[in-house]
Design a protein that fits this description.
With about 300 residues, the protein is α/β, with parallel strands linked by helices. It has helices spanning about 5-15, 25-35, 50-60, 65-70, 80-90, 105-110, 125-140, 150-165, 180-190, 210-215, 240-245, 255-270, 275-285, 290; strands at about 25, 35-40, 70-75, 95-100, 115-120, 140, 170-175, 195-205, 250-255, 295-300. It is built from 14 helices and 10 strands. The strands form 2 sheets. It has a 6-stranded mixed sheet with strand order 1-2-10-7-8-9, with helices on both faces. It starts with a helix and ends in a 12-residue tail after the last strand.
Length: about 300
């Protein structure tokens, strides 16, 4: 189990390598939600997403010998960029397995951050196989994008910062993909909050975490037809028990609701957020009665958007 002291040590460890992101508010959005909203803007994090936190912590926990051999992960999105930049910042080689179907803009970003891309077929099995081959060939350490203790602890530092500035939050709402962010957030709320609940947000199209909480076992998705491309992964055996223990529930939202929430934030707050980030705000709007008159923290998970492919 990740203890309070572990989270404090993690934050101290990664602070030189990350941004402490701002917390924004909006009177207009408060009025629409009928709640007091505090947006933790991880879209302003280095490489544009909270994943920089977990990637940095995971590399910093490696031995000198491990760092010399590099790190490897499989990711088509933000963790690919995060591990590449974290590795570059720490003088470590990063091998990034990416599906051939990954957008060119994301491949370009990984290359820009110094990552070495190895392409594979766009299946989870192919990604795992290729990552294992690189491990065998190079001796690099595999770091999972979400199902890793050090990654989870790193992601939890965003909520730590949020609660340090707003210690009386009633609830924190976060999007759910692989579960690293919500697991870390739930730990932070448990250790640093004042009876602060954590609620997940998930598209109906990829509601595996919602179904997992219902069934008591990790579920998967038959299809992943959602605009929230960062939430297409499933929970792991390290994140799921934390979610079961510390998360109050998960709210599901529709694709139109995600787009509407994203557009509201762009128009009214003047900040760039990606569709996956909008899912948390969409959940607050969908279940307004659940959050009415409460102090609600919303973690904006990232702002890496393909500007040539906006949904509005």
């Amino acid at each position: 189990m990740i203890q309070k002291e572990d989270l404090i040590a993690t934050h101290q460890r990664i602070t030189p390598f990350i941004h402490e992101t701002p917390i924004f508010t909006s009177h207009l959005l408060n009025g629409i939600a009928e709640a007091e909203l505090f947006f933790k803007c991880e879209n302003f994090q280095r490489m544009g997403a909270y994943k920089m936190r977990g990637a940095t912590n995971a590399i910093l926990q490696l031995t000198k010998e491990q760092r010399e051999k590099g790190v490897v992960t499989h990711s088509s999105g933000n963790f690919a960029q995060a591990l590449s930049l974290a590795a570059k910042s720490l003088g470590v080689k990063a091998y990034i397995v990416m599906p051939s179907s990954a957008p060119q803009v994301k491949k370009d970003a990984v290359k820009g951050y110094g990552g070495t891309i190895i392409e594979c077929e766009p299946t989870l099995g192919a990604r795992n196989t290729m990552a294992q081959e690189i491990q065998s060939e190079t001796g690099a350490t595999f770091i999972h994008p979400s199902n890793d203790r050090n990654v989870i602890a790193g992601q939890g530092t965003a909520c730590m910062e949020l609660l340090r500035e707003q210690p009386d939050l009633d609830v924190v709402v976060v999007p759910v993909g692989g579960g690293g962010l919500i697991a870390g957030t739930a730990l932070a709320a448990h250790h640093f909050g004042n009876d602060c609940k954590v609620v997940g947000a998930e598209p109906f199209e990829v509601d595996d975490a919602y179904r997992s909480l219902k069934s008591g076992k990790i579920e998967s998705n038959d299809t992943t037809n959602t605009i929230a491309d960062g939430l297409k992964t499933q929970l792991g055996d390290k994140s799921f028990p934390l979610i079961q223990k510390y998360v109050e529930g998960i709210v599901r939202v529709g694709e139109d609701e995600i787009i509407a929430a994203m557009k509201l934030v762009w128009e009214r707050m003047k900040i760039v957020i990606e569709p996956s980030s909008a899912v948390a705000f969409a959940a607050v709007l969908r279940k307004k009665n659940r959050f009415i008159d409460k102090k609600v923290g919303i973690i904006i998970s990232g702002g890496n958007v393909d500007l040539k492919n906006l949904p509005f």
